[in-house]
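pasting for the record
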Amino acid sequence: MNHSSEPFIGMHKTELDTPALLIDLDKMEANIQTMADYFSTVNADLRPHVKTHKTPIIAHKQIAAGAIGVTCAKLGEAEAVIHAGIRDVLIANQIVGAQKIARLINLAKHSEVMVAVDNPQNVQAIAEAAAAKGATVRMLIEVNIGMDRCGVEPGKPTLELSDQIRQTPNLVFEGLMGYEGHTVAKPNRSERDTAAREAMQRLLDTKHYLEKHGVEVPIMSGGGTGTFNITGSIPEMTEVQAGSYVLMDTTYRNVEGVGDHFDCALSVLATVVSRPNPSRIIVDTGLKVLAKEFGIPQPVGLTGVEMTGLSEEHGKMQVSDENVSVKPGDKLEILPTHCCTTVNLHDRYYGIRNGIVESVWEIAARGKAQ
């Protein structure tokens, strides 16, 4: 449901009803520029992941700063950004089943969409649907480089799949993709560097294997926020799919070599609804507005207070300093531990600059899991 932004523009952020998802616009814009500045110094381009913010206007800002296009996790996300005028879109996921494939083909008629594949039957199904509608689909083969999620195995299996794509009408083999997701959140820079480079070497070796057999590999795609300046520094990588950097969270803030480049621009505004005793504060932000799979989120700038638990509608905070003068009705900001899944719990952002609401953006791809 769309809500007019007019009643909110010009408000101080503490006047907003809660829970409310806030973006510090200055910090977000600085994050976008910092990442753009880095990619101006290396061979790879930036293809930021929409799954973090799920909002076309932010994707347009990233492209305006130099990104070559965007990455999406789901068809619904791709539809949202393509309908908003973005043409170069990678769906870094397998699109399986007749209904989803039909949607993919429809997108290919209106954009330069690419899709990740790792299965011969899926490749054939997409090709048949594309031929029936006179569409062309670009494909990246996803290679399993150690995360053991999706992906064809390196070497010969990848070559065989590339041969199938190249020999099939209505398909274009664009290159390879590998996600070193099992390495991106390692806090220690040296350990993360070693693990990421080991993973990416499998992708590089597969590229060389295909080239040895006469197959050109134009695109080499991978990476994330935790490895943007590791994977991004490898000369043969052509694009990096970093996403979280634009908003950031406290998990990545604690990753060495990442948290010192980007600032947490995302927070959830909460209201204190109860202080039953001096040692306990209850706020109106629970599991339905704050993700906790990476740990319990914490309030900003409030010493002597720790959030210790989340139920559906409530957050419980323990007070170690009973002189903390927080009372029912007060507003607090809480930093998420995982920005991507927290964003997906909200309908809109309130863009804040110098404490004032400057913009209200609907999260167009919120809940687009199909």
